[in-house]
Please model this.
Amino acid sequence: MRSSTACAGGCPTSGGRSGVDAAYCARVPERLRHVPAPNLEAVAGAEEWRKLLRAWDQTLRRYAADDLRFPVELEEAWVAALEDPWRSDCIRELAERYGLYGAFRRPATVAGDTASWASVLEDFGLVTRDMAAVLADGRIDQDDASRLPALLRDVQRMQADLESLRQHVQAAAEGGGGRDGRGRPGDLAGVSDERAGFAARVA
Model:
Protein backbone atom coordinates (compact mmCIF):
# COMPACT_ATOMS: atom_id res chain seq x y z
CA MET A 1 0.00 0.00 0.00
CA ARG A 2 1.34 3.41 -0.90
CA SER A 3 2.44 5.67 1.93
CA SER A 4 0.05 8.57 2.54
CA THR A 5 3.06 10.75 3.30
CA ALA A 6 4.50 9.92 -0.11
CA CYS A 7 1.28 11.15 -1.68
CA ALA A 8 1.49 14.36 0.32
CA GLY A 9 5.04 14.82 -0.93
CA GLY A 10 3.80 15.00 -4.48
CA CYS A 11 5.34 13.48 -7.57
CA PRO A 12 9.13 12.94 -7.43
CA THR A 13 11.33 14.16 -10.22
CA SER A 14 11.33 11.69 -13.10
CA GLY A 15 14.72 12.35 -14.67
CA GLY A 16 18.29 12.16 -13.41
CA ARG A 17 20.00 10.04 -10.80
CA SER A 18 17.59 11.15 -8.06
CA GLY A 19 14.53 10.20 -10.11
CA VAL A 20 12.12 7.32 -9.62
CA ASP A 21 13.35 5.65 -12.81
CA ALA A 22 16.97 5.43 -11.65
CA ALA A 23 15.97 4.33 -8.15
CA TYR A 24 13.61 1.67 -9.49
CA CYS A 25 16.09 0.28 -12.02
CA ALA A 26 18.77 0.17 -9.32
CA ARG A 27 16.55 -1.77 -6.92
CA VAL A 28 14.66 -4.19 -9.13
CA PRO A 29 16.41 -6.63 -11.53
CA GLU A 30 15.28 -6.16 -15.12
CA ARG A 31 13.73 -9.63 -15.38
CA LEU A 32 11.51 -8.90 -12.36
CA ARG A 33 10.26 -5.45 -13.36
CA HIS A 34 6.55 -4.98 -13.96
CA VAL A 35 6.58 -1.18 -13.98
CA PRO A 36 7.28 0.48 -17.37
CA ALA A 37 10.16 2.52 -15.97
CA PRO A 38 12.74 3.49 -18.61
CA ASN A 39 16.41 3.27 -17.74
CA LEU A 40 17.02 6.85 -18.79
CA GLU A 41 20.67 6.79 -17.81
CA ALA A 42 21.29 4.13 -20.47
CA VAL A 43 19.59 6.08 -23.31
CA ALA A 44 22.07 7.68 -25.70
CA GLY A 45 19.91 9.66 -28.15
CA ALA A 46 18.47 12.99 -27.00
CA GLU A 47 15.22 12.59 -28.92
CA GLU A 48 14.65 9.07 -27.57
CA TRP A 49 15.49 10.29 -24.06
CA ARG A 50 12.92 13.11 -24.28
CA LYS A 51 10.27 10.73 -25.62
CA LEU A 52 10.79 8.21 -22.85
CA LEU A 53 10.97 10.91 -20.20
CA ARG A 54 7.70 12.47 -21.35
CA ALA A 55 5.86 9.13 -21.26
CA TRP A 56 7.35 8.21 -17.88
CA ASP A 57 6.49 11.59 -16.40
CA GLN A 58 2.85 11.12 -17.44
CA THR A 59 2.82 7.68 -15.81
CA LEU A 60 4.20 9.11 -12.55
CA ARG A 61 1.57 11.83 -12.54
CA ARG A 62 -1.16 9.22 -13.00
CA TYR A 63 0.21 7.25 -10.05
CA ALA A 64 0.23 10.43 -7.94
CA ALA A 65 -3.35 11.23 -8.95
CA ASP A 66 -4.54 7.66 -8.22
CA ASP A 67 -5.55 7.21 -11.84
CA LEU A 68 -3.41 4.05 -11.89
CA ARG A 69 -3.09 1.35 -9.25
CA PHE A 70 0.16 2.04 -7.42
CA PRO A 71 2.50 -0.99 -7.66
CA VAL A 72 4.08 -2.15 -4.41
CA GLU A 73 7.44 -2.73 -6.08
CA LEU A 74 7.67 0.99 -6.91
CA GLU A 75 7.20 2.21 -3.36
CA GLU A 76 10.84 2.17 -2.22
CA ALA A 77 12.03 3.89 -5.38
CA TRP A 78 9.28 6.50 -5.06
CA VAL A 79 10.28 7.26 -1.47
CA ALA A 80 13.98 7.43 -2.38
CA ALA A 81 13.23 10.04 -5.05
CA LEU A 82 11.28 12.33 -2.72
CA GLU A 83 12.90 15.37 -1.16
CA ASP A 84 13.02 15.85 2.58
CA PRO A 85 11.08 16.18 4.82
CA TRP A 86 8.76 13.83 2.87
CA ARG A 87 11.44 11.18 2.34
CA SER A 88 12.27 10.95 6.04
CA ASP A 89 8.60 10.98 7.03
CA CYS A 90 7.88 8.16 4.57
CA ILE A 91 10.72 6.03 5.89
CA ARG A 92 9.39 6.49 9.41
CA GLU A 93 5.86 5.67 8.27
CA LEU A 94 7.04 2.49 6.56
CA ALA A 95 8.92 1.46 9.72
CA GLU A 96 5.87 2.12 11.88
CA ARG A 97 3.91 -0.47 9.91
CA TYR A 98 6.12 -3.08 11.58
CA GLY A 99 5.96 -1.52 15.04
CA LEU A 100 9.38 0.15 14.68
CA TYR A 101 10.77 3.64 15.09
CA GLY A 102 12.22 5.03 11.87
CA ALA A 103 15.41 6.36 13.45
CA PHE A 104 18.48 7.31 11.39
CA ARG A 105 22.01 6.25 12.21
CA ARG A 106 24.44 9.18 12.25
CA PRO A 107 28.18 8.92 11.55
CA ALA A 108 30.55 9.05 14.54
CA THR A 109 31.84 12.50 13.63
CA VAL A 110 31.43 16.06 14.89
CA ALA A 111 28.93 16.62 12.06
CA GLY A 112 27.00 13.52 13.12
CA ASP A 113 26.85 14.66 16.73
CA THR A 114 25.65 18.10 15.68
CA ALA A 115 23.03 16.67 13.33
CA SER A 116 21.61 14.37 16.01
CA TRP A 117 21.20 17.20 18.49
CA ALA A 118 19.93 19.69 15.89
CA SER A 119 17.21 17.24 14.78
CA VAL A 120 15.93 16.86 18.34
CA LEU A 121 15.89 20.63 18.86
CA GLU A 122 14.04 21.16 15.59
CA ASP A 123 11.49 18.51 16.54
CA PHE A 124 11.02 20.10 19.97
CA GLY A 125 10.29 23.43 18.33
CA LEU A 126 7.66 21.85 16.07
CA VAL A 127 5.99 19.97 18.93
CA THR A 128 5.98 23.14 21.04
CA ARG A 129 4.31 25.05 18.21
CA ASP A 130 1.70 22.31 17.74
CA MET A 131 0.98 22.06 21.46
CA ALA A 132 0.52 25.81 21.78
CA ALA A 133 -2.37 25.62 19.31
CA VAL A 134 -3.83 22.40 20.73
CA LEU A 135 -3.71 23.58 24.36
CA ALA A 136 -5.16 27.02 23.63
CA ASP A 137 -8.31 25.87 25.47
CA GLY A 138 -6.34 24.04 28.15
CA ARG A 139 -6.92 20.45 27.00
CA ILE A 140 -6.47 17.91 24.21
CA ASP A 141 -9.83 16.67 22.94
CA GLN A 142 -11.98 16.15 19.84
CA ASP A 143 -12.17 19.91 19.31
CA ASP A 144 -8.52 19.66 18.26
CA ALA A 145 -9.20 16.98 15.63
CA SER A 146 -7.86 19.11 12.77
CA ARG A 147 -4.59 19.80 14.61
CA LEU A 148 -3.88 16.36 16.03
CA PRO A 149 -2.47 14.68 12.87
CA ALA A 150 0.31 17.28 12.63
CA LEU A 151 1.02 17.00 16.37
CA LEU A 152 1.17 13.21 16.18
CA ARG A 153 3.50 13.31 13.18
CA ASP A 154 5.88 15.74 14.90
CA VAL A 155 5.81 13.76 18.17
CA GLN A 156 6.65 10.56 16.27
CA ARG A 157 9.48 12.33 14.44
CA MET A 158 10.88 13.58 17.75
CA GLN A 159 10.51 10.10 19.26
CA ALA A 160 12.55 8.61 16.40
CA ASP A 161 15.22 11.31 16.54
CA LEU A 162 15.55 10.90 20.32
CA GLU A 163 16.04 7.17 19.81
CA SER A 164 18.69 7.92 17.21
CA LEU A 165 20.45 10.26 19.66
CA ARG A 166 20.20 7.64 22.43
CA GLN A 167 21.83 5.03 20.19
CA HIS A 168 24.55 7.51 19.29
CA VAL A 169 25.28 8.40 22.92
CA GLN A 170 25.19 4.77 24.01
CA ALA A 171 27.66 3.76 21.30
CA ALA A 172 30.05 6.50 22.42
CA ALA A 173 29.66 5.52 26.09
CA GLU A 174 30.50 1.91 25.24
CA GLY A 175 33.58 2.93 23.28
CA GLY A 176 32.09 2.62 19.79
CA GLY A 177 31.85 6.29 18.96
CA GLY A 178 35.43 7.02 17.96
CA ARG A 179 36.17 10.05 15.80
CA ASP A 180 37.83 8.39 12.83
CA GLY A 181 36.78 11.04 10.32
CA ARG A 182 35.20 8.48 8.02
CA GLY A 183 31.60 9.61 8.44
CA ARG A 184 29.46 9.65 5.35
CA PRO A 185 29.25 13.06 3.61
CA GLY A 186 26.02 15.02 3.65
CA ASP A 187 24.74 13.81 7.02
CA LEU A 188 24.68 17.27 8.57
CA ALA A 189 21.10 18.51 9.12
CA GLY A 190 19.73 15.05 8.38
CA VAL A 191 18.70 15.63 4.78
CA SER A 192 21.11 13.45 2.83
CA ASP A 193 20.44 10.43 0.66
CA GLU A 194 23.60 8.96 2.17
CA ARG A 195 22.01 8.30 5.55
CA ALA A 196 21.78 4.67 6.60
CA GLY A 197 18.39 4.01 8.19
CA PHE A 198 17.94 1.63 11.07
CA ALA A 199 14.79 0.74 12.98
CA ALA A 200 14.80 0.59 16.76
CA ARG A 201 12.18 -1.70 18.19
CA VAL A 202 9.40 -0.10 20.17
CA ALA A 203 9.78 -0.99 23.81
User: Anything to note?
Assistant: The beta strands are 100-105, 196-201.
